[in-house]
Each structure stands twice: as C-alpha cells, then as structure tokens.
Amino acid sequence: MDFNMKKLASDAGIFFTRAVQFTEEKFGQAEKTELDAHFENLLARADSTKNWTEKILRQTEVLLQPNPSARVEEFLYEKLDRKVPSRVTNGELLAQYMADAASELGPTTPYDRISLCHPGWSAVARSRLTATSASRVRAILLPQPPK
C-alpha cells in the first residue's frame, strides 16, 4: 500500500478549507454559495429517495427476521381462547411504506412500478394494498391455500 504524504496533506487542506467556508456561511460571515434551482431539486429528490429506500430496507429486514415474542403472544392468546388484538402486521406496514414512497417520489421512479408478492399477507393487507396502489403500485399476490 502506497502512503502518499503529499496527497494526504492536499486532501486535509481541502477538507479544512471547506469546513471553514461552511462555518462562515452558517455564521453569516461569508456569502452562501448559490446552487442552481434544478440542482437543489435533485438534492431534495435524492434525499427523499435515500430516506424511503432506507425505511423500506429496515422494514423488509423486520419482515424477514422471525419475531419470537410475537409468536409467543399469539400462542398465549390461542391457549387463553382470546382474540388476538388487531394491529398492522409487518407485511402491511412494508406495503404501506412502498405505496407511500411511490406516491411521494412520483411516476418517473422505479418505486412507481413495485411488485409485491407475499403469500402470508392477510386480507386486510391485500385490500389496503390494492386500494392504496390502484394508480401507483402493481400488486401481485399469490392465492391463499384453503384453511
């Protein structure tokens, strides 16, 4: 591995120069660098896309990882002959995030053409997904096996 002291010094100098400029802009001691309006719009869209992607990724991880406490809770309700309280499932929440991302980011993004397929989703999730996604998200749901 080559250690280039000149490049390190140059990069450090650039970093400190930009830090000083940013600080002076924040304190009003220097004129803020004006960016093109189109570039500002692109920055806002990139931030929004990043936030939705991270949110969908986190919810996908939650959906794919088993939750032992939820299984224990369902088991206890079943043994006590009680009805499990209705709440939004992880799959329904993921579907809602995807639909919200599609509506916020618009028809020109890949989020507008999301296909969802999960055999274990309840009828509530399917109806919410199809109602929400009529114009934005195309949902592909597998048929449920008879119980």
Automatic annotation (TrEMBL):
<protein>
    <submittedName>
        <fullName>SH3 domain containing GRB2 like, endophilin B2</fullName>
    </submittedName>
</protein>
<dbReference type="Pfam" id="PF03114">
    <property type="entry name" value="BAR"/>
</dbReference>
<dbReference type="GO" id="GO:0005737">
    <property type="term" value="C:cytoplasm"/>
</dbReference>
<dbReference type="InterPro" id="IPR027267">
    <property type="entry name" value="AH/BAR_dom_sf"/>
</dbReference>
<feature type="domain" description="BAR">
    <location>
        <begin position="16"/>
        <end position="111"/>
    </location>
</feature>
<dbReference type="InterPro" id="IPR004148">
    <property type="entry name" value="BAR_dom"/>
</dbReference>
